[in-house]
Write a structure and sequence with these properties.
- The chain is of the alpha+beta class.
- Among the domains are: 47 residues, no CATH class; 156 residues, no CATH class; 170 residues, no CATH class.
- Helices cover 39% and strands 15% of the residues.
- A 7-stranded antiparallel beta sheet has the order 1-14-13-12-2-11-10, with helices on both faces.
- α5 packs across α6 and α6 runs antiparallel to α15.
- The N and C termini lie far apart (78 Å).
Length: 570
């Protein structure tokens, strides 16, 4: 090549060496020229590092020039950026010896095989996950021939309905339709829709009933603050304007107005004009239910989560309450102890004995100073081991689902006065300092502000085989209470021709409200249902709320309506 290209310089055959020489000249005195003994330094270092180097180009000849050109490297590449040797580098872990008949794979082939194996493993895991999910869903989904799903007393923060039918009927409501929906809510008008609406966009009844099902009532109402949820909302409320935080007079005014609204709600509940309402504090949530709901023949209230301090304060105020989950766990333990083996019974008995011995040793150590003073006989040693053990068990269940408290009957009125006068009901520091609890109700009450859940429709195209199909969704956000969930499903059942699915997102601290607090049958159930007829709810919604809760500590997560048959999963 040097003979055919005029002005060709042999130094271009080794551009890496040329760059090395330029760097050395910039640093200091020049070293030996190319081809000398100094050129072997980098090569020896590369060989010591286990790198594969190209041979020196042969001198003269067309064939030698062609061979050198075929091995020419990028002049701007590093010395160690060439093709790797067949053997593994020194830092690589030792691999097991190969058989003589086993074919040798280079680096790229090994990578490709590893990637294929990893992909197959991922595919297998995905198939297993899908299979297990299907099996899990098979047992979790409770199907029935009815169109109803079990009552869910938790508060939802978001609903996502999807269907193959369009939700265009819920878009761009006319002012007259929205106003008519408000009037129907104020007058507690029951809307009875046909089972199948041919064209939902032309159904005025449907479009008026939709805003009616989105209405709820709130106190206090501060437009710049999101007042639900309150538990764990410090980060969302941080930096918001709160002029009452340092003004005691304003705090007292807010609490005075809140007390009036709270009392108004309780009076409506007592006269069966309000079915239920929530009191949401920064530490716990209270659900008040009228007589006849959730299997109770009297007014009931459930609080969760609670602490030992709160329960002690309620006892001091004379409030009688029960811990339904603790009682249920004790009954299960008793049944398990009767059917267990004698060995297990012996182990269960020895554990408290060991604890008793340890506690006795601690007590002896704590009273050893009395012996040193010689007055151990004059002072009676108090027996506090049982009390300490009981307090330890009570503290361990704090802030847990097991700490749910049930108050019934006239004690709910005492609970009302206790909450109004409870100083720990309002935070004294942080973003929620001085802010009264949030009251949520399905009907209007004194001092309440009417609010609406936010609705948004989205249309997307999803791949189906070799084509795309339309997928329609309706998103509802806000504090979705049980009556709104049931009302919306009744509307969608008619508008979507009995086929849709829904993802339900729950405010987790309220899932425990699905615990069944009364297993006995109500003798005057029909009378109580008639008395609740004026509470402002649809007759079908009211009938669902009178059922016994069956979800336990969980809540509805997924719902599917297929051909007017409801399947659900927790």
């Amino acid at each position: 090549m040097s003979g055919t290209v005029p002005g060709y310089s042999p130094s271009f055959k080794r551009p890496a060496e040329t760059l090395r020489l330029r760097r050395r000249r910039a640093r200091g005195p020049a070293g030996p020229g190319p081809g000398g003994a100094g050129d072997l330094g980098p090569r020896r270092a590369a060989l010591a590092a286990g790198l594969r180097l190209r041979p020196f180009p042969a001198a003269g000849g067309r064939s030698a020039g062609a061979a050198a050109a075929s091995l020419r490297r990028n002049p701007f590449a590093r010395l160690d950026n060439g093709p790797r040797a067949a053997g593994p580098p020194p830092w690589a872990p030792a691999s097991p010896p190969r058989d003589a008949g086993e074919p040798f794979l280079d680096f790229h082939q090994e990578n490709s095989v590893a990637q294929k194996e990893e992909f197959s493993e991922r595919t297998t895991v995905k198939q297993l996950f899908t299979t297990s999910h299907q099996q899990h869903s098979k047992y979790d989904i409770s199907s029935s021939e009815s169109v109803e799903f079990p009552v869910d007393w938790s508060i939802k923060t978001r609903l996502l309905f999807t269907s193959s039918q369009s939700f265009a009927w819920a878009d761009h409501l006319k002012a007259q339709e929205e106003a008519q929906g408000f009037v129907q809510h104020f007058r507690a008008t029951e809307v009875h829709l046909p089972e199948n609406i041919q064209d939902p966009r032309l159904s005025v009844e449907l479009r008026c009933a939709f805003p009616q099902s989105l209405i709820y009532w709130l106190h206090p109402s501060l437009p710049w603050l999101q007042l639900f949820p309150r538990i764990g909302a410090d980060r969302k409320l941080a930096g918001k304007t709160s002029p009452w935080s340092n003004d005691e007079g304003l705090q007292q005014l807010l609490m005075s107005e809140w007390s009036i609204s709270f009392t108004s709600l309780y009076n409506l509940l007592k006269t069966k004009l309000c079915p239920y309402f929530y009191v949401c504090t920064y530490q716990f949530t209270v659900l008040f239910r009228a007589a006849g709901l959730a299997g109770n023949d009297v007014i009931s209230a459930v609080l969760s989560p609670t602490t030992r301090g709160l329960r002690e304060a309620m006892k001091n105020e004379g409030i009688e309450f029960s811990l339904p989950l603790i009682k249920e766990n004790d009954q299960r333990k008793q049944k398990a102890s009767k059917t267990s083996l004698h060995i297990e019974e012996y182990e269960c008995k020895t554990e408290p004995e060991e604890e008793q011995l340890n506690s006795d040793e601690d007590e002896e150590e704590s009273f050893s100073w009395l012996e040193e003073m010689g007055v151990q006989d004059k002072i009676k040693k108090p027996d506090i081991s049982l009390k300490l053990r009981k307090e330890k068990n009570e503290v361990q269940m704090d802030h847990r689902p097991e700490s749910i408290v049930l108050v019934k009957g006239i004690n709910t009125f005492t609970l009302l006065n206790f909450l109004i006068n409870c100083k720990s009901l309002v935070a004294t520091s942080g973003p929620q300092a001085g802010l009264p609890p949030t009251l949520l109700s399905p009907i209007a009450f004194r001092g309440a502000t009417m609010q609406m859940l936010k609705a948004r429709t989205v249309n997307v195209k999803t791949p189906a085989n070799s084509d795309y199909k339309d997928q329609f969704s309706l998103e509802i956000t806000g504090p979705v209470m049980p009556h709104s969930l049931h009302s919306l499903t009744m509307l969608l059942k008619s508008a979507q021709k009995g086929s849709f699915s829904a993802g339900l997102y729950t405010h987790e601290p309220t899932s425990i409200f699905n615990t069944c607090t009364q297993m006995e049958k109500i003798s005057n159930k029909e009378v109580l249902e008639k008395e609740l007829a004026n509470c402002g709810l649809h007759v079908k919604t009211l009938k669902q709320l009178t059922q016994l809760p069956i979800l336990g500590k969980s809540s509805l997560r997924f719902m599917e309506m297929d051909n007017y048959t409801c399947n659900w999963r927790c």
